[in-house]
Amino acid sequence: MVMKIAGCVLAAGFSKRFEGDKLSANIRGLPVLNWSLKCLDHFDFRAVVLRSETTKLFKIPTQIPVLVNTKAERGLSESIKLAVSWTPWEADGLALMLGDMPFTDRIIPRLLEVFRQEKPEAVAAAFKGKPVNPVIFSRKVLHLLYMVEGDVGARNVFSKINIIPVESQEEYLIDVDTEEDLAKAEAIARKLADF
Fold first, then answer.
1. DSSP code string of the chain
2. Is the bond preceding 31 in cis, omega lying within 30 degrees of 0?
3. Domain total for the chain?
């Protein structure tokens, strides 16, 4: 039987290092968040986490449920907990992606392949051997994500589980935190369009 995986894009942050809302900044005419949402096409179940005041800023496709994080000021951990609570019971795993990472759709197919073949507790993109986002967690370890606190994400859980790092191209791991990052993402998008 083919494993069913849920995917959730976490996009309830406050863009503190970016002038304005980074998720609505454009890359080749499309908001950063919409680039990030492309990765959800690879999943059996999909959702996005937003703050209530940002839900009207974005045109989220109707087939993607919007989970509203009313405790976003507590950090990324609250979005993670919301995603875990949303995860359908029939899902074998949950992938967490960040809304400010516009090119994760290039990484997800390989992560899904490894997850389905190896059936680990988790599989993550990696840079120089170090696990980074995005991450797919097995259902059997999702309860650990309820213990995360603050704005560090799920990193504290990594040491408690068996995680397979999957080396990924650095340019696909870019996250847009500054205007300089946005310019880099624009250059990457132009390069991808040339293929």
1. -PPPEEEEEE-----TTSSS-GGGSEETTEEHHHHHHGGGGG-SEEEEEEEGGGTTTS---TTSPEEEETTGGG-HHHHHHHHHHHS-TT-SEEEEEETT-TTGGGTHHHHHHHHHHH--SEEEEEETTEEEEEEEEEGGGGGGGGG--TTSTTHHHHTTS-EEEEE--GGGG----SHHHHHHHHHHHHHHHT-
2. no
3. 1
- pLDDT in the model for residue 130: 94
- pLDDT value of position 178: 87
Query: What backbone torsions phi and psi does residue 7 show, to the nearest 5 degrees?
Result: -130, 135
Q: What is the pLDDT of residues 101-123, one digit of tens each?
A: 999 999 999 999 999 999 999 99
Whether 195 has a pLDDT exceeding 60, the answer reads no
pTM of the model: 0.94
User: Is it the case that residue 19 has pLDDT exceeding 70?
Assistant: no
Range of the domain at 78: 5-193
CATH number at residue 43: 3.90.550.10
